Amino acid sequence: MSHTAHIPSHRKPRRSASKLAVRAGVAGGVLSTLAMAGTASASPSAEPVAETTLEMPVLNLDLGADVSSAVTVAAENTRLAAVEGELTAQEESARTGAAAEAKQAKEEAQKKADAEKAEKTAKEEAVRKAEAERSSRSSGSERTTLKSTAAPQGTGTVSAPASGSAAAIVNFARAQVGKAYVMGGTGPSSFDCSGLVQAAYRQAGISLPRMSQAQSSAGTSVSLSALEPGDILYWGSKGSAYHVAIYVGGGKFVGAQNPSTGIVERNLSYDKPTGAVRVL
Predict the structure, then answer these.
(1) How many degrees, rounded to 5, is the angle at CA 202 between CA 268 and CA 273?
(2) Residue 163 structural domain
(3) pLDDT score at 50
(4) Is residue 18 part of a domain?
(5) Any idea what the Cα angle at residue 179 is, between residues 199 and 137, rounded to 5°?
(6) Residue 40 lies inside a defined structural domain of this protein
(7) What contacts 224, CB < 8 A, 6 or more positions away?
(8) Could you tell me which of 203, 135, 194 has the C-alpha nearest to residue 175?
(9) CATH number at residue 238
(10) pTM of the predicted protein model
(11) Number of structural domains the chain divides into
């Protein structure tokens, strides 16, 4: 081996100066801190660290009064709402009741009107039916006989004896022969059956009811075999007659028969009446 060959050293390598300085500084700082701590703990005259306390602002509120007032207001609002709801319910109930009563009244009025209309129609139909039956009876030789024996129409004369009030009634009735029949007519150009009888009796100063039903109940009942001029003849039941006429004597009557014949003078056999009443 050469004498100049490198032989590794067994000594520890040297630490650099900078590293040693850093370590020394760290150690010194630690020792200084420990010393200060020991001094502080050993000194009895050390002053305690002052503590800082934050004070909250004081609110000057009367919470009890505010809560009581709020409760009172809420209770009053609740009461007012209940009252308003009750009034609304009562108004709605009143409107509903009024509407129901109005509807019921309207229905009752309509029923009454319908009933009156039906009754009037039935009466008119009964009159038309009776007049048609009377017209159908005059046929063949009977019609010829009636034409030959009928008194001249429109002359205003009386073939049977009559005097006083009876004469006034008969003369007026016969003077209307040939005029038109109109339902509800009371003269002077047209009549219905009861309108003619009422107008004739007015000539004698006697006031009669307007309708045939009431006229058939006026005065006293008389037999058809004992008739006198001026007696009222009726067809149907007494008190509910559907047709009336005036007996003019000689077995004849004058009456407003129907729209097709008008006011005519006929024999009793043409259409025999149900009964008669005497007012004079």
Answers:
(1) 20
(2) 138-278
(3) 55
(4) no
(5) 100
(6) no
(7) 268, 272, 273, 275, 276
(8) 203
(9) 3.90.1720.10
(10) 0.46
(11) 1
Q: What is the pLDDT of residues 37-55, one digit of tens each?
A: 555 444 454 455 555 555 5
Query: For residue 143, is it within any domain?
Result: yes
Residues 6+ apart with CB under 8 A from 277: 215, 216, 217, 218, 219, 220, 221, 222, 231, 232, 234, 238
The single residue listed with the structure tokens 């007049």 is 131
CB 263 within 8 A of CB 257: yes
Residue 121 within any structural domain of the chain: no
- pLDDT, average across residues 97-113: 82
Q: Which residue has the tokens 């009037």?
A: 120
Q: What average pLDDT does this structure show over 71-97?
A: 82
In one letter, which amino acid is 47? Answer: E
> How far is the C-alpha of 123 from the C-alpha of 163, rounded, in Å?
36
How many residues make up the chain in this entry? 280
